[in-house]
Amino acid sequence: MREASAIRAEAVRRLAERFGASAVLDAPTQIAPYRGDLMYRQEEAELCVFRPSSAEMLSEGLALLADLPILLVPRGGGSGLAGGATPGAGAASLVVSTERMRTLRRIDRDACLMVAEAGVVLAEAQAAAREAGLHLGLTHGGAGSATLGGSVATNAGGANVLRHGMARDQILGIEAVLADGTLIAGAAELWKDNTGYSLPQLLAGSEGTLAFVTAVTLKLRAPPLDRQAALFGLAGPAQALALLRLARDLLGDAVTAAELMSRSATDFAAGMGVAKVPLESAPGWLLLLEAERTSRFFDLAAGFDALLEAAFEEGLAGDGVFAQSEAQRLGLWSLREGVAEAMDLWRGPILRTDCAVPLGQVPRFVAGVDAHVAALGGGLRAAFFGHIGDGNIHVNVMPPAPGDALPGKAALSEAIESIALSLGGTVSAEHGIGLHKRAALRRMKPAAELALMGRIKSAFDPANRLNPGNIFGSCGDDAKGAPEPHKDAFRCSRP
């Protein structure tokens, strides 16, 4: 520990001498917020925090420390759910925060793009795009705290992936700095560039294991002129998929979101006092559909009327409500968001998952999980909600009361992941691998693919200094063993 402390002290000295004391944090009270994310905290880490204000400053700072055996931990807004911004225990760690890299360099209305530094908060970027008369398609529940750099590095998803895609789909270019300080000035503004390997696409979703993202060029789109939403009561996921297919047939690419909720999830939210189903019947499942128009020549309201009529005529829905105003539309979304909020407010043990399966397999996934949880007994409740438009259904399992135990949590998580994998799915749809899903990744990926990923990691970071333990490590055999999730994990999350 003394050796790690001495390494950390030397890093602080070098950075402070070159950039001033305010650029590096070292006091216990200063570094406390940087010890983890919403999932994990590492109280035993020997860390200091470097806060560069530019890519050039970061490049020079890392070069100054190139001969020190100090681990490097990229950090954005700290709102991740996989432990990806958690320093390791024992070894000296430098947390590199992008909080001072907040310049929105430019918005080009003609080229429909934005160039912004990594520390710009997603909600601020969205607002800037709106002010310029454009729209940033990247959005998710952590928009108020998550940064652009973190959202891109983790390939964040969200409710609008159905129309706009994941973070990776929004990128034209990325500026980045390697662990040795090499600056890759690649925040290009080209919509077409077919010149070999795409480094921006490789860095997106790399979770800080290959390089520090310092700036991004993001695609912008025409802003929505109108949004329409409806909530349908239906029998199950199979009917939800049929209704989504009908919506696409009638509305085309205007469909932006399709959110599925089980009765168990909405009843739980109602019991927690945060949501109420605005339907007269008590359906087993609910589907929230939303669409938007960007052209004044498209009558979206008429399209939604036709959708509702066809849904009832074909027997896909037994009940439904169509938002007649913006306030009503937001009210429908408050139900969906209320389900997630209820999970946050639950003060007992809870298992939350991030699996996804091919769309056609969603009914089998739900049925398989339901059967497995029921077989466990003990009054366990499985609640389902999430983005059926991209197959990402969040499973939440709770005991009957907050004071009750949730036995075999790790085994239950593995069982749910195994059901998803058996259907051609994934163990992590939108929150990444980080520390949390490393063992699950090994169950999912073939050895040859994992080996190839490791060789890519070695090419970018041969000394394995960048976020070691994330993605590639397995519990107990890496320099960054994962602590237990802290007691308030997920309390501020919005899947």
UniProtKB/TrEMBL annotation:
One Pfam family matching this protein: FAD_binding_4
Region (Disordered): 476-495
InterPro entries: FAD-bd_oxidored_4_C, FAD-bd_PCMH, FAD-bd_PCMH-like_sf, FAD-bd_PCMH_sub2, FAD-linked_Oxase-like_C, FAD-oxidored/transferase_4, Oxid_FAD_bind_N, Vanillyl_alc_oxidase_C-sub2
Domain FAD-binding PCMH-type: 42-223
Key words, A-Z: FAD, Flavoprotein
Biased composition (Basic and acidic residues): 477-495
Keyword rRNA processing: no
Similarity-based family: Belongs to the FAD-binding oxidoreductase/transferase type 4 family.
PANTHER family in the cross-refs: BLL6224 PROTEIN (PTHR43716:SF2), D-2-HYDROXYGLUTARATE DEHYDROGENASE, MITOCHONDRIAL (PTHR43716)
Protein name according to UniProt: FAD-binding oxidoreductase
Lineage of the organism: Bacteria, Pseudomonadati, Pseudomonadota, Alphaproteobacteria, Rhodobacterales
